[in-house]
Specification:
Elements (H helix, E strand, L loop, with lengths): L1 E6 L5 H11 L4 E5 L8 H13 L5 E4 L4 H8 L5 E5 L1 H6 L10 H17 L3 E7 L10 H20 L2 E6 L2 E6 L3
Helix pairs in contact: 3-5, 5-6
Length: 177
């Protein structure tokens, strides 16, 4: 029973997903997807801020490139997986020079979509909605925006519920009661 939660930078999407996870009566596992590269102290501080916000009773795992395999390992009836976030997961397929592992990503994306369709427990997926701005002059950025947009559409198609968060407010796009 997957639920995609998307929104812009600092929109409140992660906090919204965390609030849903806190209300879940069963066990919660947080699957982090961010990869720290280089000496980006500001990004490392963001990751640490997210870590400190998580309750101690939640289990935690790293969802590297093989996110579908980790989802399958951690999925359980009555449990909840919070995957934060798909944009950071997509970044794992870009190398330091901006090259994109198209074949590797396509295979992992297909496996993720299948794993989501077969999930026994609740799955909350956080993603970024970034395609609303100006088309970038950078080929790498255009590739990222295009691939994340396609990924979000494909994940939304298999999700029971899709929520857009803006200004900290959730707007249900799919699956509203």
């Amino acid at each position: 029973m997957p639920h995609l939660i998307t929104g812009g930078a600092r929109s409140g999407k992660s906090r919204y997903a965390e609030a849903l996870a806190l209300a879940h009566p069963g066990p919660v596992c947080y699957l982090a997807t961010a990869e720290l590269r280089g000496d980006d102290a500001e990004f490392a501080a963001r990751v640490e801020h997210h870590r400190r916000r998580r309750p101690a009773q939640w289990s935690q795992a790293e969802g590297g490139r093989g996110l579908a395999a980790e989802l399958r390992r951690r999925d359980a009836a009555g449990g909840l997986l919070l995957i934060d976030c798909l944009g950071m997961w997509l970044m794992r397929f870009f190398d330091e020079d901006g090259g994109f592992d198209t074949a590797g990503f396509e295979q992992e994306r297909a496996e993720l979509l299948t794993a989501l369709e077969q999930a026994r427990g609740e799955v909350l997926l956080v993603s970024n909605e970034i395609g609303w701005g100006v088309v970038s002059a950078s080929a790498q950025t255009r590739c990222f925006v295009d691939e994340l947009g396609r990924l979000n559409q494909q994940v939304a198609a298999v999700c029971r519920r899709v929520t857009l968060v803006a200004c900290g407010l959730p707007l249900v796009l799919k699956g509203g009661e």
